[in-house]
Amino acid sequence: MKKIAIIGAGSMAEAFISGILENGFIDKKNIWITNNSNQERLANLETRYGIQTTYNLNELFNQADIVMLAMKPKDVATAMQSIREHLTEQMLVVSVLAGVSMITIETLAKIPLPIVRSMPNTSAAVAKSATAVAVNQRVTEKQLETIKNLFRTVGLASFVEEEQLDAVTGLSGSGPAYIYYLIEAMEKSAVEVGLEKEMASELIVQTLLGAAEMVKNSSKSSTQLRKEVTSPGGTTEAGIRVLEEHGVQQAFISCIKAATAQSKKMGAELSSKLRTAEQPS
Ligand SMILES: NC(=O)C1=CN([C@@H]2O[C@H](COP(=O)(O)OP(=O)(O)OC[C@H]3O[C@@H](n4cnc5c(N)ncnc54)[C@H](O)[C@@H]3O)[C@@H](O)[C@H]2O)C=CC1
Ligand SMILES: O=C(O)[C@@H]1CCC=N1
Hints:
Elements: E1 4-7, H1 11-22, E2 31-34, H2 39-49, E3 52-53, H3 57-61, E4 66-69, H4 76-83, E5 92-95, H5 102-109, E6 115-119, E7 129-135, H6 141-153, E8 155-159, H7 165-173, H8 175-192, H9 197-217, H10 222-229, H11 235-245, H12 248-278
Parallel strand pairs: 1-2, 1-4, 2-3, 4-5, 5-6, 7-8
Antiparallel strand pairs: 6-7
The structure holds 1,4-dihydronicotinamide adenine dinucleotide (NAI) and (2S)-3,4-dihydro-2H-pyrrole-2-carboxylic acid.
Residues 7-13, 34-36, 38, 70-73, 75, 78-79, 96-98, 119-122, 173 line the site of 1,4-dihydronicotinamide adenine dinucleotide.
C-alpha cells in the first residue's frame, strides 16, 4: 500500500491512525487526512502523529490507493460530492460508516469502485478493535489481502456478508460504549462502598480484562463461568439478584437490538433520500 487518504478526522479516524502507526503498518508520511472545516483539529493530529493533513484535494488523492470514508453517515452525501471527481476506479474505498451500504457509496461516487464496508471500533487505538468487513465484487485479490492486513493491524478482522453489518454495528461497533457505561457504574459504586477511586479503577480494569480472558480462553460458556463465581447464599448471588430485578440482562439485549435497528434505519433513510433526489421533478 502506497498511501491512504482519510476523509473525516474524528474519533474513529484517530483511533485507526493511532493503531496503524503503533504497528508500523504504514509510514506516517503516507497517511493523509482532511476534514470539512476544523483546521485546528487537523493541526493537532499532525503534531501528535506526524501524519499529513491538507485541504487540497489534488494533493490528498494524488497516488492514494486507499480512500477511507470516516465522516458521520449524515455527511456522506456532501463529502462524496466534493471528492468524487478525484476518485478513480483503481482506488479502494474503505468505509467505516454505520448503516451506509456499498450501493449508496457507489451511487454517490457515480463511478464503479472497489468498496469495502467495515465496522471497526475505537479500540483500534490499542490494536484491539473487533472489526467486521464486507467487500463488493470489484475488490481484487490483492486489495483483499491489503484490507486483511490493514484491519488485522488494529485488532481482529472477520469477513461477513454486508447484511450482517448492522448487527455488527449494534454489537461491537457501539460495544465499547456499553462496556464504558458498565465501568462508569462500577466506578460510582466503588466510591459509595468506601473504596478509593484510583485503587477501585485498577480493580475494575483487571476484573474486566480477567473476565474477557476467561471467556476467550476457557472451554466453559459465559453462563457456566458466571455460575462458578456465584456461591449459593453468597455475595454474587445477592448482587445478581438485584440485576435480575432490574432486568439488566434484558436491557442489554434491547440495547443491542435498538442499536442494530438504528444502523438499519440510518442506511434506509439515506438511500431513500438519494432515491428522492434522483427522481425527475
Ligand atoms: N466513534 C465510533 O466509535 C465509531 C464510529 N464509526 C463510524 O465512523 C464515522 C465517524 O465517526 P466519528 O469519528 O465518531 O465521528 P466524528 O464526528 O468524531 O468525526 C467526523 C469527522 O468527519 C468530518 N467531516 C464531516 N463532514 C465532512 C465532509 N463533508 N468532508 C470531510 N470531512 C467531513 C468532521 O469534520 C469530523 O472530522 C461514522 O460514520 C461512524 O458511524 C464506526 C465505528 C465506531
Ligand atoms: O454511534 C455511532 O453511530 C457510531 C457507530 C458505531 C459506534 N459509533
